[in-house]
Amino acid sequence: MRWANREEWRAEKELVFEEHVAPVCADFEITPDELARKLGEQANILLLDFALEDLVSRCFPPDNRNVIDDYLKKRGRLEPVVARQYLQALRNSFVSLYEVVQVEPGSYVVLRDLIRGGEVVRAEERLGSQAMVQWDKLAARVVTLMGRNYLTGATFLLPSEAAESLLRIFRDTDKQMQQTHKKLARRRALEEDQRQEVSTVVLAGFATGFSRVWLMYCLDSLQRPLPELTNFDGEKIVLSVVTFPLLEIALSEVEHLLDAAPELERESDERSWTWLAEGDGGKPPRSKARGGLSFLTFRDDNRTLLGSVDLHEKHVILSVDSKERAERGKALLLKLLAGFVGTPLTSVQSVEQALEEWDAQDNDDDEFPEAEEIDREIVAPILKEFLDDHYRNLLEEKVPALDKKTPRQLVRSAAGKKKVVVWLKNLENHEARRTKGSKQQPYDFSWMWEELGIAELRR
Questions:
Q1: Structural domain of 400
Q2: Cα distance between residue 10 and residue 68, in whole Å
Q3: Domain check: are 404 and 349 in the same one?
Q4: 3-class SS at 201?
């Protein structure tokens, strides 16, 4: 890095770094300094390292000058043999798009090259592997040293949408290169090794394509508003609290009325009740939401929890997650407690406001101890049963990510199977990332692969 900062390499370094950031800065109408502030320290360091690896693997005119060649010629004798070999491998490396097939955290990852194809490769990686899960997509360089493969320091973890964008871009570029190659070869069919050679030529100058796509998705995610958050009734989540003043001190009568209500269930011996939806024959509820993210709280008998009711000395307080539920709960309690409560007052808070309020507080993680192990043992089978039913129903539903077709429809064709494989891998990847670092086991999707008859493609 110090050698690349020398005066004789300043022009080349500035050129390469500008190629990585300037187009994205222009698209988002920000300066490079503003870009660095938006990314944050860690992401910005990663970007600089990625651009640096691109710099030292490039050759510049005149005479194909290269930073590593220059360094090794003038200072190489000071480096151990293994260091010189590593630098030479880095000098001849290129970035490609990889899929994580297997992970052994703290040891290695098994990767599939999504662009060049070929056999999977095992790459030694101690630190980075601890943050990876199966089916992650990586923009990375793999170098071989003394017969073993290693990931270099600068690796981008890409969302699936970014990976698909890169694949589309590369396919278009690669197609043009293949056509040129065929013309030069008098239209002879390409062998697998020839195809890889052409792909490698394209990849050798494609590092900026990876960083630009990664940057665009990073900035887009930072500027993107929160998705529409709804409950399972399809109602926008707005934290709502309805306060009913008690007209007279008649706590025992109010307790009796709340205890007798079939919609309410008392929590232990406290003056607190859970508001429950009517049962659905023991089946988990189906979401009525359309798009965005929907949230559900339910019990082991699959009844939906709609809210809570708390009795205080002078008030009855209803807490729910939408304005619509607040209105339904208000009507329920006004009828149930007629003569005992006055006109209620409703206060609401959006999710954004709640997050801002949370950020403004000096919160201590110690205030939220981890749930007891017994809770996890109780919840796990209930959650599995719910997810089993959810995903089994999903196989028959039109999925937006699958061109609004059902998974069963798509697996009838070869092209459709490819889309379903990508979809299932994304489901497994999201689940693995959701449960990573916790004691919770990720949901096992293997039955879905079997059910759809594509288990052999899960590799």
A1: 379-457
A2: 14
A3: no
A4: helix
**Residue at a domain's end among 192, 224, 256:** 224
Where a domain ends, among 335, 361, 387? Answer: 361
Q: Quick one: which of 413, 412, 391, 416 has its CA closest to 404?
A: 416
Taking each helix axis as running N to C, give the angle between helix 81-91 and helix 67-75, from 0 to 180 degrees, rounded to the nearest 10: 160
* Beta strand ranges found along 289-361 (DSSP E): 293-295, 305-311, 315-320, 345-350
Mark whether 213 and 295 lie in a shared domain: no
- pTM over 0.85? The answer is no
274 and 157 within one domain: no
**Is residue 182 over pLDDT 70?**
no
Residue 45, domain member (yes or no): yes
Mean pLDDT in the chain? 85
**Structural domain count, the chain:** 3
Report how far residue 316's alpha carbon sits from residue 344's, in angstroms, rounded to the nearest whole number.
9
φ, ψ of residue 334 in degrees (nearest 5): -65, -35
Q: Are residues 325 and 275 in the same domain?
A: yes
pLDDT at 224: 77
pLDDT of residue 39: 93
Q: Do 289 and 346 share a domain, yes or no?
A: yes
In a domain, 369, yes or no: no
Residue 261 above 90 pLDDT?
Answer: yes
The verdict on 339 and 299 lying in the same domain is yes
Q: Do 168 and 21 lie in a common domain?
A: yes
What does the pLDDT read at residue 144? 95
